[in-house]
Amino acid sequence: MTTTPWDKRYYHVLANLEAKGLISVTKEKNSYQIALTELGQSRAKRLLGLPSFEPIVDRMKDVKRAFGARSGSSLKQMIYKVFDEEVGQRRLGEVIEA
Questions:
Q1: Which CATH number does the domain housing residue 92 bear?
Q2: DSSP state of 71
Q3: Domain range for 12
Q4: Dist. CA 53–CA 60, nearest whole Å
């Protein structure tokens, strides 16, 4: 799998989810708040019950336990601190081979 620091594809994914009415994106000062809409919550609950999504659900529960309600900025700062050489010192868009 390859990815890049600040992978611009995420913006397209967020725009698609917002266009489908699954998330709302609001700007608050210098950050963006992303939240599930009622429709998004309904669809997420439906996915929770599907066996094919069980590994993803289990992993996301682990992530929530580990990181709780930390902000995106907080997570970004932690990633840059812990993975400085792998992420922090790379140019925008440079491919990371994993």
A1: 1.10.10
A2: -
A3: 2-97
A4: 11
